[in-house]
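Input.
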Amino acid sequence: MLRPDRFCANVESIAPERLASMGASVAIVDLDNTLLPRDQDDVPASVREWLAKVQAAGFRVCLVSNNWHERAREVAAELGLPLVAKAIKPLPFAFWRALAILGVRARECVVIGDQLFTDVLGARIVGCTSIMVPPRSSYDLPHTLMLRRLESLIMGKSAAERASEESSCG
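Output.
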C-alpha cells in the first residue's frame, strides 16, 4: 500500500509512452510540490511543456489537491485543467470524483504526486497506478514535513534517491 509503482525525477521526466506502458489513458496529478513549488503561483515553463506533450499524446489530466485556497482554482483555470480541490487525500472521494470527471476506471489512471501518505496511498486505495516524484521545494506545512520524515523511515530513501536509482521515466 505504501510503495509507488514508479519513482521519477519530476513530472517533466514522465514520457507519455511511459504512462501508456503503465496502462493509463489519463492522469490525476497533485498540484503543490508536484507541478509547482508550494505557495508559488507561477507554473514553470517546463511543466507547461510537459502538460502540452501529454495532452497532445491523447492523455487527459485532472488536478486533485488538498489545497483549500483560491490559488488552486486559479492555477487549474490558467492551465485549462479540471480540479478537485479540498480533496482530503488519501480518502477516496476526490479520486473517485476525478475518475468520474475523466470518464475512466481506476485501472486506466495513473496518479502522480510527491507524497506517500496522500497521493500514493490514495491511488492504492482506489486501485490506480502511482508515480511518486520528489517535492519541488523543501518548504511545506509543518504536518507535511512530519509526514515526510515518516516517509523516509518507511521508504529508507527519499523519493529523489529512489528516482535516481530507477531507470528512466521516458
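The first helix runs from residue 16 to 21.
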